[in-house]
Amino acid sequence: MKQSVLMPDYLQNFVCSGSDCVFTCCSNWRVDIDEATVKKYRQCKEPAWQAKFHKDLIPASQDGMPARCRMDKNGYCTFLTEDRLCSIQKRFGAGYLSYTCRIFPRGYNNIKGSIEKWGSLGCPEIMKKVLFSGKKINFVEENLKKTTEPGAAVTYKLDESNEHAKSFYLLRKFAFDVLQNADYTMIERLLILAYFFNNFNEMREVEAVKLVALYEDIINSGEVREVIKDVKPERKFYFNLLRTVMASTASHTKDHVYKKYYKKMSAQLCLGVSDERWFFSLYDEYYRVFLQKNPLLMENYLISAAFTELFPLQLPVLWDSFMVLLIRYLVVNFFFMGLVVEEKGKVNQDKFLEGFAAIARVLDASRPTFTHTVLAEMKKSGSNDIIHAFHMIKI
Q1: Average pLDDT over residues 135-148
Q2: Cα angle: 346, vertex 347, 351; to 5 degrees
């Protein structure tokens, strides 16, 4: 009996753009080589390739992988050709690639034995389908192919030992329904989820069904607007929190591309200026208009990120999982806005994709430590509560 795999619909027709890609996947991050592939490369009979493998496969220092590809001084994999294609695949075929290179940008999660497949936003082609397709993300099932059987590549695994495991599908469906509810603005949707997960934190597992039903009723009737209308924007508070969180993200990555964009966008958005009015004048003039013209941009990003990270159960405490999603929201808003302001609101799609791909790959490759470290710092400073969540959302 074949096993099915659940995946977002944008993966159905995914095709790598190869040398036409605006940002090759073979640069500026670690390319791991699994043990079976290392053995295969070491047994290669061609003298020139024997020498190449000996020179350009170096010992890996983490994640249990035996080797990784050497990068040149510009951060590109040394197995790339001049036209930015893989020389290994060109000479020996796709079957000769390491597991990482063969499946990227796809990844897998395991939910109590059920397999789910997702696409990394570090790939511009995936990002284009997610951010600029003009369509909501739907989820479909297909038969799991033997050649892509996930093994060590499973990113997240959920089993019955998680105290909320029985409610996973219920909670995820509710969260996704809220995030895709076009009757509410994205800010309103996130405020609803903030109230929900704050309430859920205080309730027993058996009450999950009741709480979801209650929120579905007040969302469908519109009564929830009476709950969230009292949340007022505190722009100075938002600005200072944004500066703190963004500085924290930059301090917890060694990726020079991320640091370069952080520095560039900080200057672009006047993050170093103590007066928040400069920042918000740019927000109101350019970014607010951009979001109105691209209503699915943030929705699809958050749905994709949430699906990838097994939201809301990637952490034992559901509120913490929600805060991690909000940290992503804050970080992504910052870079989206910077890229939009840089072009004075007239966004070139390819340039936008190229710029954000550099950011997204850091968020993906550093998962989960990147956002979790920022969360730990917020907890330490006492900013991991619903009031701070409101200030991260309402602007």
Answers
A1: 80
A2: 140
